[in-house]
Amino acid sequence: MGVIKVENFEAIREKIRELLAEDRPGRLQDFLPEIHYADLAEVLRTLELDERVKLLRCLKSERAAQVLFELDRDEILPLLEGLGPRVSALVLQEMSSDDAADLIGDLPEDEQQRYLGLMSGDEAEDVAELLEYGEQTAGGLMTTEFVAINKELTADEAIKFLRQTAPDAETVYYVYVVNDHNQLVGVISLRELIVSAPDARIGDVMRTNVISVNVHTDQEEVARVVAKYDFLAIPVVGDHGELLGIITIDDVLDVIEEEATEDYLRLANVHQERYLELGVLQRAGRRLPWLIGLLFGALLAGSVVQVFEDTLAGVVALAFFMPVMAGGPGNVGTQTLAVVVRGLATGEIDSRRGFWVILKEIRVGLIVGAVSGLVLAGIATLWLDSVILGLVVGTSLALSMAVATVIGGLIPLLISRVGVDPALASGPFITTMMDVISLMIYFTVASITLFRFLG
After folding, report:
1. What is the CATH number of the domain that holds 421?
2. pLDDT: is 177 or 334 the higher one?
3. Amino acid 197: pLDDT
4. Strand order in the sheet with 174-178
């Protein structure tokens, strides 16, 4: 099977359109197998809906399933409608059970039952079982298409068993071992199985220290475990240790991308599942409450200026440095926030290490603040020919940046302690808070210093 080269993409797309226009399914069926399913999905995105449906009808169910799963959810559902329930059911049946469950789970309840009714009994039962688990849990991610052998088998018997069952499994890199009650008791790699003596009992050659996740484990924790141990797949067990399914690396990569996107959107206070699929008014509705709230925060910063209006009136040059005082510490706080939120998400930072992380960030903030303060003090002194003013702006910026690192690190840790997603300690929130605090520091330092030295 060939792969589309970048320079040939347009030519292949035009060839597909030409064959679709000619309405000659036979020629199109002969041409499509030469294209990798991922590249075919990319071509499909450029076609009109009716052309997409025609193209998919020219593919075998297995290939159509591969192409469909490369598309976004909002692109797939119209295609299933266009293909019709019976053809769609055949395509879904060719998918792994977890992928089919993901797609069917996005349908209304009555549509879910209709598609499940059209699928074969075993496939429908597997998919229906997966639909019962939470979407963001190990149960919602796992596939029931895996290989498990009994610990009482010999290596030779196990290999014969694999020849019969492996074609239907999603992966056979790991062979999981169960007892008579289907409880997970061990694991053996395919290589270890092949090199074992034919009459060796599986229970004697397997590894018993199996790392698994519970069916109700959050998908983010599953991703952490897989990343920590570099697994290609991880078993999923029930509350009594029974083996229910496996989660493969491709699904874990999807979780990592989903969680990273979710955290990034939350940092901007626009978190919403499939945010990019929302309409303009819906997007605006998600943003406005936060932005209005932050607007009041900005007004609070303005009230700080009003409190110190006598100081500002006495030295008008102080107004020139206000944007620097508001912006610089806010940026430092957001940087620290990003570091801590990422550390909490990946498990690199926990409640025990939180204190040391903040302590280290404070030291970083002191260095950054001291250097930035010296630079700004030098600029103010040379430009305005005032050592006192240079001392005021330099000291204020250094103090504000040090405080910003504390706030940027402390807030997500505190939020995490109470069980709330730390990404909610968003950049705009930190920035607005630092606007208020940095201006208070600035004008307080200015008032004390100018009163002392200038009377």
Report:
1. 1.10.357.20
2. 177
3. 94
4. 148-150, 174-178, 184-189
Tokens of 18: 């030409």
In a domain, 262, yes or no: no
Confidence of residue 404 (pLDDT cuts 50, 70, 90): confident
pTM: 0.56
Beta partners for residue 177, in sequence order: 149, 186
Q: Are 244 and 294 members of one domain?
A: no
One domain for residues 89 and 166: no
Quote the domain boundaries for residue 176: 148-248
What is the number of other CB atoms lying within 10 angstroms of the CB of residue 301?
Answer: 19
Structural domain tally of the chain?
3
Looking at the chain, the whole-number percentage of residues with pLDDT higher than 70 is 78
Domain final residue pick, 75, 109, 136: 136
| Identity of residue 86 | R
User: Where does a domain end: 136, 163, 181?
Assistant: 136
**Distance from C-alpha of 119 to C-alpha of 127, rounded to nearest angstrom:** 10
Q: What is the CATH number of the domain that holds 222?
A: 3.10.580.10
Tokens of 405: 């690192």
Q: Are residues 130 and 155 in the same domain?
A: no
| Structure tokens that stand for 314 in this block | 């006495």
For residues 368-376, average pLDDT: 88
CB 244 within 8 A of CB 215: yes
Q: How far is CA 438 from CA 33, 91, 413, 423, 444, in A?
A: 63, 59, 22, 23, 10
Q: In whole angstroms, what is the distance from residue 389 CA to residue 194 CA?
A: 78
Residue 358 has pLDDT above 80, yes or no: no
Identify the sign of the CA torsion 402, 408, 414, 417.
negative
137: Cβ contacts below 8 Å, ≥ 6 apart: 215, 216, 217, 218, 219
Counting every residue written for the chain, the total comes to: 455
In a domain, 268, yes or no: no
Residue from 32, 35, 33, 47 nearest 4 by CA: 35
Residue 287: per-residue pLDDT: 58
Instruction: Compute the distance between CA of residue 185 and CA of residue 182 in angstroms, rounded to an integer.
Output: 9
CA angle 55, 44, 278 (to 5 degrees): 125
For residue 264, count CB atoms less than 10 angstroms from its CB and return exposed for 0-12, middle for 13-18, buried for 19 or more: middle
In a domain, 269, yes or no: no
Q: Is the pLDDT of residue 424 over 50?
A: yes
